Amino acid sequence: MLALAAAQGVALAQPPTDWERQQAERNWREAEVVLPAFPQKVNLMPFFVSAASSYEFYIDGASLAVGEDGVVRYVLVARSSLGAESVSFEGIRCSTSEYRIYATGKSGGGWLRSSSPWRRIAPRQVQRWHNALRDEFLCPFGRPIRSAAEGVDALRRGGHPSRSRSGN
């Protein structure tokens, strides 16, 4: 098969080398971030984090976006069992397994900008929603989803379709 492809002059896709990954990281620049509209309940899509969590988690489907910089951005709503809500506008960088909080929600609605740095998503982190978003919905095979529609579909299904094919 490889010989046939080579004989026909077809280029086979190769994974990037370590040098290519390092160059891409060195040249990476974050896009300018525009805060989205504050979430509306009609757009909230639940996702499962852990049976041990007393919180319910939602992504505002209307806010989900994939930037040209490879960052998947979204509004996260975490609701406690008593009904208290925490709202944040965040981003996940699939290639480096990091997240960043761009803004937090004010109690009456609206945003309070944050200067949060990029933080590593730890494997056994207590706050596992970033792990769930990265692993199950937004970063199939460690790469960002291709579009907001792909992410919304993954949230509707309860996981990215690639997860079932890969046996994970």
* Tally of DSSP helical segments: 5
Helix-strand pattern, N to C?
HHEEEEEEEEHHH
Q: How many separate structural domains? A: 1
Kindly provide the name of the CATH class.
Answer: Mainly Beta
Give the termini separation: 29 Å
User: Overall mean pLDDT score?
Assistant: 85
- How many β strands by DSSP? 8
What would you call the shape?
globular
Determine the CATH topology: Lipocalin
DSSP strand content: 25-35%
Helix content: 25-40%
User: Strand pairing plus helix content: what structural class?
Assistant: alpha+beta
State the low-pLDDT regions, or none. Answer: 1-7
The radius of gyration computed from the alpha-carbon positions, rounded to a whole number of angstroms, is 18 Å
Structure description:
This protein has 168 residues and is of the alpha+beta class. The chain has a single domain, classed as Lipocalin (Beta Barrel). Helix content is 25%, strand content 25%. The protein is built from 5 helices and 8 strands, in the order ααββββββββααα. Strands 1, 2, 3, 4, 5, 6, 7 and 8 form an 8-stranded antiparallel β-sheet that branches. The longest helix is centred in the first third of the chain and has 10 residues, at 18-27. The protein is globular.
